[in-house]
Amino acid sequence: MRLYYINLDREQDRRAHMEQALAGLDFERVAATDGRQSPPTEKGPTRFEIACLTSHREAWAKFLTTDSAFACFLEDDVHFSPDFGAFVGEESWIPATAQAVKLDTFFQSVMLGPPEAQVKRRRLARLYTRHESCAAYILSREGAGFFMRATEKPTLPVDYIVFPEDPAQQGLMLLQLAPAVAIQDSLYLRHHDQGRNFASAIGKLDVAKPSEKQRKILFTLRREAERLYRQIFKARRYLVNRLGRGLRPEIVPFV
């Protein structure tokens, strides 16, 4: 399986980290789009989120020029389980119906269906809720094509699109590997006391705010209305998954 890792030209430490970690695997570096080179956005995704999404799309496009059935996509601040190579070294364990397989964990509460398979002492299960991060995942050709179309005019960051709030409602077959075999550096430091302390390449505060008093009030009201809608949506989804499907919340570990 070909691996594509996304890396900014100015992030040489991350590049060295990834090429050392992936040594012996079939990988290709994808030069990331630099959000610093774009003007700030006033609404929707920030310029850094758009740059991140554009970089993932570039990697997907490279995959779609090949005749491979699956490919793995990685961000450049990822740490790997010793078992990682065994999973990306061959494809027979991936169901043909899967559009995506999430290989990392964000240590947030998610709901997974019954095991689709037991693979190398790990569970492969359908993901029924949002699981943040696009740090390490596999796409099928169908999945890559679907997400290329879904991100043509993005209103959300890339991980909200690939691993959305309700995948089943969108007809997506997204799978989670549990325990995970990859984890972002910041989470590795926080939960395992290991890592490199890579600085974030995503700007967090680069969002224009309304200046006039009336605009500020409207901005606050809209933000609160969106927050309330999300809470209602999540509560409904929780009831469907908990009572209708008999699922329980869990946190995917990293081993």
- Assembly state (oligomeric): single chain
Series of secondary-structure elements, N-terminal to C-terminal:
EHEHEEHEEEEHHEEHHE
Instruction: Count the beta strands.
Output: 11
Radius of gyration: 19 Å
Globally, the shape reads globular
Whole-number tally of structural domains: 1
Structural class: alpha/beta
Q: What is the fold-level CATH name, i.e. the topology?
A: Spore Coat Polysaccharide Biosynthesis Protein SpsA, Chain A
From the coordinates shown, what is the CATH architecture?
Alpha-Beta Complex
% residues in beta strands: 15-25%
Helix fraction bin: 25-40%
End-to-end CA span: 22 Å
Strand order of the largest sheet: 2-1-3-8-5-9-7-6-11
Largest sheet: 9 strands, mixed
Low-confidence stretches: none
- Classified by CATH, the class is Alpha Beta
Mean of all residue-level pLDDT scores: 89
Q: DSSP helix count?
A: 7
Structure write-up:
It is built from seven helices and eleven strands. It has 255 residues and is an alpha/beta fold. The strands form two sheets. It has a nine-stranded mixed beta sheet with strand order 2-1-3-8-5-9-7-6-11, sandwiched between helices. Strands 4-10 form a two-stranded antiparallel sheet. It is globular, with a radius of gyration of 19 Å. The model has no long low-confidence stretch (mean pLDDT 89).
Short description:
The protein has 255 residues and is an alpha/beta fold. The chain is built from seven helices and eleven strands.
